[in-house]
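<given_protein>
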Amino acid sequence: MAIDYLPVINTHFTLFGGHLETVPAGWQWPAEEHPAFELMYILKGRQRTITETGELVLQAGELTIIPIETRHANYALDHRPMTYFCMHFNLDDPALRYLLIREYAGRIITPQDALYPRLKRQAEQLMAMIGPDYNLADQLDLQVSVIDLIMTLVKDLKAAGKFTPQAADVDQFMLCHQLASDLKAQLDYQVYHAAVPQQPSVARIIAKRNISQSYALKLFQKYYHESPQQYLINLKLATAKELLRQPRARINAVSAKLAYTAPSHFTREFKKHFGQTPSAYLRDLKENRTN
């Protein structure tokens, strides 16, 4: 007699908590990265999120998924209070992590997306579960709700025909992701700890992973659509914006921290990337703070 069995499943996920918060006009949160995905849902106001690969402006009612270990800084816009909900989660299946990073990085989920109604409803369900105490039944209910939300993301990928990752793709992406993390760590050291900041060596960082420069270039072109050097430049310029937002920031000091050969070089790259000079960016910041 033939017997059919259910599979043995040993995939784990972790909820690292979440919170609902209303912040004042002008609120900002310094650049950070998490060992988890972050779901952001804006309820009132608008939020600018600056990541190492670009900027997002989220309107009220919109959501985004910030991938694992993606540096990002958040700012409230429009000179009015902003209300948002955020939740951090992770899962140990590398293929699922790969798919979520590949398909949702830099994406704003709006009412025009098919998954929006269900994802919004699930986020609001999780918000309604926030309380002072959680018994075992509450914790199990939270786990089911988070799994349900993850399944909404996964089913959206399946419906779009984007749920067939190859093992080689997963391994290559994780190696590329590790290289990107190495570049971020080296830049952080140079900016925040080195007595005399120096330009991070992309070639040296790649060599430590025991791969060739050409293979690293192939990986970055495939998964980030740019070279490792351009990725580092974009990362430096995102860091520059964060440094310029600090009180009493000076362009020459920021240029030196980022190991530019001269402030004029920094100004050219900043303008090329953002469409305005660092001086104009500082003027805009000052005007926004006083209005």
